[in-house]
Amino acid sequence: MAPHDPLPGPRLGEPYLLTPGPLTTAYEVKQAMLRDWGSWDDDFRALTAEMRTRLVGLLGAGHEAYDCVPMQGSGSFAVEAMLGSFIPRDGKALVLANGAYGLRAAETLRYLGRDHVVLDKGDYLPPRGAEVAQILAGDPAITHVVAVHCETSSGILNPIEEISDAVAAAGRVLLIDSMSAFGAVPLEPARLQFDAMVSSANKCIEGVPGFGFVLAKKTALAAARGNSASLSLDVHAQWAHMEKTGQWRFTPPTHVVAAFVEALRAHAEEGGVAGRGARYVRNRDVLVQGMRDLGFETLLADRWLSPIIITFFCPADPAFDFPTFYDAMKARGFVLYPGKLTVVDSFRIGCIGQLDEHVMRRVVAAAGEVLAEMGVTSAAPPQAALDERSKLAS
Ligand SMILES: *Cc1c(COP(=O)(O)O)cnc(C)c1O
């Protein structure tokens, strides 16, 4: 660990994870897992209660109408639980897709046998309010709209308030996958209307992986009874059981929950959503400026860049090879993330986790060293990448 690191970050020899989760967690978060908990015991019930209260509080103004239902499994389990529990069996969903997670939501609906249509904007173009309004006006059978807040596959921050306005104006219900944004980007019921949203333990709250959680209107939770075709992923049943007993229905990931509550306390100390978001914004700004100074270009124009994860084009220079770049960055202590664009080569660098702007400066310095080592003279992307990018007007 470098002496100027104000964040504990990883231990000696462990690389920083510049990934969208699992990510680099604080030592205190890992340490919180060194104790065993009885799932039925009062101590663990208190931990679950504290977690639920803190999470609902992160919604900010208007949170009183909402409740929190944690769900075992990775984030996708929670998405599946939300879709299967809030969309009635005779409902119909419009899925707004601009990347892998939107497409996964559509795939989930196909498995669940829920009628749905997909607005597929390709690799990264954002779904806009006007087109959502138009689709809803043309199809009165649509009852629910499923939107991804930050589409982690490109790092785009989708215009969720614009989408919410269109859905609310059409009298439909919005369900949000805010997996990679919640806790760092505001999602306030006072500013947008949604029945439910999901996130998970190992994203912006900086816990370790093992469960997700649904934040939903209490009225929607009560109305969701009988919708789910899955026993273990029934959000209503988990909620009803938790309200009655204070316990999870089936074995909870006790150590992960203990680590997560520690992470929530640290999140509050950092200044909640605003404080966490501000650190990630600084991480992003230092990273993007530094990489641009090296000649790299981002897929997205500034207005669409999330403070979560950034997609950079691979340089056109034939001396550049991503696996070599990846290994050399890892040797310097930084684990990057491959890109997900279908048209041009790219890679991603995450801004979330126990990292700050000092770490980001070191990431940029390391990238510069590695380019020189590889003999890359220009980090400029190929023309095809720039042509692709021009599809998205800033
Ligand atoms: C991480 C993530 C998920 C869930 O992925 P899991 O691998 O199942 O945890 C879902 N949606 C988005 C936008 C994500 O970033």
UniProtKB/TrEMBL annotation:
Modified residues (N6-(pyridoxal phosphate)lysine): 203
Enzyme class name: transferase
The protein's role, per its UniProt record: Involved in phosphonate degradation.
Native organism taxonomy: Bacteria, Pseudomonadati, Pseudomonadota, Alphaproteobacteria, Rhodobacterales
PANTHER family: 2-AMINOETHYLPHOSPHONATE--PYRUVATE TRANSAMINASE
A Pfam cross-reference name: Aminotran_5
Protein name: 2-aminoethylphosphonate--pyruvate transaminase
GO molecular function annotation: 2-aminoethylphosphonate-pyruvate transaminase activity
Cofactor needs: pyridoxal 5'-phosphate
Provenance organism: Rhodovulum bhavnagarense
Aminotransferase class V domain span: 128-298
HAMAP family hit by this protein: PhnW_aminotrans_5
Family membership: Belongs to the class-V pyridoxal-phosphate-dependent aminotransferase family. PhnW subfamily.
Gene from which the chain derives: phnW
Domain of life (superkingdom): Bacteria
